[in-house]
Protein: rRNA 2'-O-methyltransferase fibrillarin
Amino acid sequence: MRSLIANELKVASAVIAADEAEPEEVVGEVGEVLLEAVAHRVEEEVEGLEDLLVTKNLTPGEAVYGEKRISVQTTAENNAGAVNGEAAPATQTEYRVWNPFRSKLAAGILGGMEEIYMRPGSKVLYLGAASGTSVSHVADIVGPTGTVYAVEFSHRSGRDLVNMATHRTNVIPIVEDARHPLKYRMLVGMVDCIFADVAQPDQARIVGLNAHLFLKQGGGVVISIKANCIDSTSPAEQVFAREVQKLREERIKPKEQLTLEPFERDHAMVCGVYQRSAA
Structure:
């Protein structure tokens, strides 16, 4: 396996790297997109595998849903921790492969999203957490100093979410209806970002209700829109346009929109910034 370290990146078809030892900006370029110490691509020289999107495993040695794990050894040669001319010992970092066919957020990143408003240390409100597969990768992204408030309505999926959170202590599972954020207002503090994948006709309203209660001024909103769940009789493009207008009415200023093909059909990802005042 071959890993490209951030300061050696030369943009090929898709290339990211992986030494996150220090919070100095680790930036890899994929097309015109900058991913800042959030998600990475690792090139693996294994037949049948192309470049992989991965997150640094918060709990090394453990998988969440049977995903592939990759260990990258940082040799003394490229280890920045050398002291007095002596090479520092090699270290090993474990990454978890993030499958874009199982995660809308991963599909959006690979599709070219420029900003997901999540960083190490961020506080994220995740609406539509399901069993926690994507949530676990967001937990990897925000790291031990961040927090993911994961809201899921289904009790069956909620059990899996709670089980996952027992190993990732930066995840706070909330089995509740995201339409009623007042029910979990005592559990959730102000957040830097809301990610929503609730696939409901009133999804924009649900996001707005939660943003008005929990999202900081200038906070980020990332919403996955499934056209068929909102209006199965209209073309997807019209559905997306109407949803974007609804977000504006909730004081969320759209910044970016892209489709999730080839990973998801008739899906779009919309990113925006929340303004608390109507101005």
